[in-house]
Amino acid sequence: MKHVEECPKCGSKDIFLIEGYSGAYGTGNNIEVGMTIFNYVPVDRYVCGKCGYSEEWIHMKNIEKARKSKHAREIR
């Protein structure tokens, strides 16, 4: 949805973005990568306004930071 601006499930073009952020007490669209609210990776959500399907994306500049999160593990 991020690149084609169309829902892969229903084909709708009614797509909206919820930008990643970090709020009080760790709330928000983010991945914790440290001990404070200043150590997080924002996660953007693309949502279909017709069927509710959503995708989450991390900016490429933050991939290595997310990989080093204490919650990350390699899948292989």
Lateral strand order in the biggest sheet = 1-4-5
Number of DSSP strand runs: 5
Which range best describes the helical content: under 10%, 10-25%, 25-40%, 40-55%, 55-70% or over 70%? Answer: under 10%
Q: What structural class should be given to the helix and strand makeup?
A: mainly beta
Instruction: Provide the β-strand percentage band.
Output: 25-35%
What letter string, H or E per element, gives the SSE order? EEEEEH
Q: Which overall shape is indicated by the principal axes computed on the Cα atoms?
A: globular
Terminal Cα span:
26 Å
How large is the count of helical segments? Answer: 1
Low-confidence stretches: none
> Average pLDDT value?
90
Oligomer: single chain
Radius of gyration: 14 Å
Largest sheet: 3 strands, antiparallel
Overall description:
β2 and β3 (40-42) form a beta hairpin. This protein has a 3-stranded antiparallel sheet with strand order 1-4-5, with no helix packed on it. The model has no long low-confidence stretch (mean pLDDT 90). The protein has 1 helix and 5 strands. The longest helix is centred in the last third of the chain and has 5 residues, at 63-67. It is mainly beta and 76 residues long.
